Amino acid sequence: MSGLDLTDVRKFVNDNIGTFHSIRIKSLEKLKLKDILKRKNPYLFKAKNITTASELISSFLEAHLSSSEEKIFGDFLEELAIFIAGRTYNGQKSSTTGIDLDFQKDSVRYLVSIKSGPNWGNSSQYGKLKIDFEKAVKVLKQHDSSTNIQPVLGICYGKSRTSFIKGYMKVMGQSFWHLISDDKNLYVDIIKPLGHRARQQNQNFIRQKSKVINLFTSEFIRDFCDNGEINWERLIRFNSGNMES
Question: Among residues 83, 172, 166, which one has the least CA distance to residue 132?
């Protein structure tokens, strides 16, 4: 094991956090109003008594962004974890299906699937993860049956303590960052560099989001409003109609 230099971690974050922000903006630039209208639940927003086009568009957009940003930032945290494990245990990004990180610690080889948060998947996704772990272990055992292999579901944030579930170890939050670095405080130390130039980056994002809201509102009024009033029936037909009348 090599000691972790937090200066290297800060440099990695500072050099790469801009990618997260640029992907956020690019995702906005690629959006189409009717794609969002097809994906979100119009019944929910009608039940919330939304009556203006701008409020409806803002609500649709926020719902879309909250889910997409979790994925975008999760990818960044995965790269950060791989970088840290590379510095401490010569860990490497894995090309094996379902495995993100492969590293040796003491006498154990860890195969890690990295997820950003505790609510990452449903029962079928957990089932697939278990199968991916079993296949990866089987392949490695064929090369060296004496290898001590530990599959790991590593979750970047969350409070639950380490547990063992159906053949793999589940580590979360502080325990996950400690596993790959041997530093109990790393989960706190990485928060500061994440804010590098965050205000400037977010201002650019807000500017682009405001532009999208204005453009989408204009388009929505044209296609789904009558005399300034939302035509919910027309919106529902667009969102959910699938039988010829």
Answer: 166
pLDDT tens-digit profile of 162-177?
999 888 999 999 999 9
Domains, the chain, with CATH or none: 7-89+204-245 (1.10.3250), 93-183 (3.40.1560.10)
Provide DSSP, the chain: -----HHHHHHHHHHHHHHHHHHHHHHHHH--HHHHHHHS-HHHHHHTT--SHHHHHHHHHHHHHHHHHHHHHHHHHHHHHHHHHHHHH--EE--STT--EEEEETTEEEEEEEESSTT---HHHHHHHHHHHHHHHHHHHHH-TT--EEEEEEESS--PPPEEETTEEEEETHHHHHHHHS-TTHHHHTTTGGGTTHHHHHHHHHHHHHHHHHHHHHHHHHHHEETTEE-HHHHHHHHH--S--
Q: Which range is least confidently modeled, 1-5, 14-18, 141-145, 157-161?
A: 1-5
**pTM for this model (two decimals):** 0.81
Higher pLDDT, 237 or 17: 237
